[in-house]
Design goal:
Mean pLDDT: 95
Largest sheet: 13 strands, parallel
Helix content: 10-25%
Low-confidence stretches: none
Strand content: 25-35%
């Protein structure tokens, strides 16, 4: 088996506001796009032919893969679902056996390699539900590890969902005749008009065929909603930084003797840790990045190329800083910032900041509610049960956004791509894409002078 198909033609609408200017599979985790991680995983396992099914943002894919060889982008257009997208890709290959992976999953190499080695027939790589089974097309397993049943978005009946498959050509007839309505749902669950690969597998299994299941032992992620980005970054940063067991300084890198480092750092080419920097834990730093002037880093941080970090800023444990970012002048960060983000002047950011976003001086993201409860997160109008203050109360700021001086973002709000929160605004509700919100100030002017003081 040397052929793999990555299904990446979905709209990613649940990931708002981060799939507006990029496809979901190009969202970075620890500064590496999900798709690049998948391609490296596949090539490391010996796959020679990799196809990526796309629809929207085709040029973004071509740019992201401009230096990657042996990957073919297949424009599938507006299909009726991923079953149809897969079928269009299969017309490009002549392989009896092939791998199919969803474009929004992050899997660790040991689990992926184990899946490939152990699979002798049609198989599925599975993840135990991290959220309610209502969020997934899920499955249950027999004691021998084969798939017992597949149910779409069940109330409480399934335990795992699908990340990848190893399939054979015998599935093709079932893809061509797949039901337009998911065939296995509980009463009242209202499936959409969409053709799913799992629906074809339901029919295929009903013919007596067996699908073997392999459950991930290591952390894996099916990135569907904004807080999944935070979860994946925290976990992957921990994994990356744990592997640093001594200081690793590439060509031109240096550490000032006054820096206090309780752990180890990996510094890329020409990167520097300057005077009075404090690092508590391990930190991975890219090329041409300078950390200086009393910056405080709490560890398990991944920092990109060409960044400037300093002047008594504070970086919370597990945070990610993208490429070409500036975090300066007592700015505080807990979370993830994408490429080209500027954090200046006494601000506090807790959550995710999309690329090329300018955060105004004194902007504050609230992360603790007065009632100590968790904020409601809504995705496409549906209330989500998000656990953990770091995720439910985080603020989610889209790409090419801006905030004005002293704006306040209350716990859990989202700001759409290319939107602006004006100076002094207290944002208590989500702001959609391409909007500006500002205060309409009412002022009073009176005479004033020495006579007011009895002169």
């Amino acid at each position: 088996m040397d052929t793999a198909i990555i299904l990446s033609a979905g709209k990613g609408s649940k990931m708002w506001p981060y799939a507006q200017i990029r496809p979901k599979s190009l969202i970075p985790i620890s500064n590496k796009p999900i798709l690049i991680h998948q391609i490296e995983l596949l090539k490391g396992a010996g796959f020679k032919h990799i196809l990526v099914a796309v629809n929207q943002h085709e040029q973004a894919y071509r740019y992201a893969l401009r230096n990657v060889e042996d990957v073919e982008i297949i424009q599938v257009g507006e299909t009726e679902g991923n079953a149809q997208s897969l079928l269009l890709c299969l017309k490009k290959i002549e392989r009896k056996r092939f791998l199919v992976m969803y474009g929004d999953v992050w899997v660790e190499k040991p689990d992926f390699d184990r899946f490939l080695i152990a699979s002798t027939g049609p198989s599925a790589l599975l993840l135990k539900h991290p959220e309610t089974s209502r969020n997934y097309i899920g499955c249950n397993l027999h004691e021998d590890g084969t798939i017992k049943e597949i149910i779409g978005h069940s109330r409480s009946e399934t335990s795992h969902h699908f990340l990848a498959f190893i399939l054979e050509q015998e599935i093709i007839p079932f893809l061509t005749k797949v039901s337009p309505i998911f065939p296995s749902v509980e009463v009242g669950m209202m499936p959409p008009d969409e053709v799913f690969l799992e629906a074809a597998l339901v029919d295929w299994m009903n013919k007596g065929n067996k699908l073997q299941g392999f459950v991930c032992n290591l952390p894996a992620f099916d990135l569907d909603k904004p807080w999944h980005i935070l979860q994946a970054n925290y976990q992957n940063n921990r994994e990356i930084c744990t592997q640093i067991v001594e200081n690793l300084l590439n060509e031109g890198a240096e550490i000032d003797p006054s820096a206090k480092i309780d752990g180890f750092v990996r510094l890329g080419r020409n990167s520097k840790i300057g005077k009075n920097v404090i690092i508590e834990g391990n930190v991975w730093v890219g090329d041409h990045t300078e950390i200086k002037a009393g910056a405080i880093l709490k560890g398990n941080n991944v920092i990109g190329d060409h960044c400037e970090i300093g002047y008594y800023c504070y970086i919370e444990a597990g945070s990610t800083i993208g490429h070409r970012c500036k975090v300066l002048h007592a700015a505080e960060l807990s979370g993830v910032i994408f490429d080209g983000v500027y954090l200046y002047h006494y601000m506090e950011i807790a959550g995710i900041v999309g690329g090329n976003t300018d955060i105004g001086a004194g902007t504050v993201c609230g992360s603790l509610r007065f009632d100590d409860s968790l904020s409601d997160q809504r995705v496409k109008g549906r209330r989500e049960n998000v656990e953990g203050q770091d995720f439910a109360n985080a603020c989610y700021i889209g790409d090419f956004a801006r905030t004005g001086v002293n704006s306040i973002l209350l716990p859990g709000v989202k700001i759409g791509a290319r939107s602006i929160v004006g100076p002094g605004v207290v944002l208590s509700e989500d702001l959609q894409d391409g909007k500006i919100i500002f205060l309409k100030q009412e002022t009073v002017i009176k005479d004033w002078g020495p006579e007011k003081y009895g002169w």
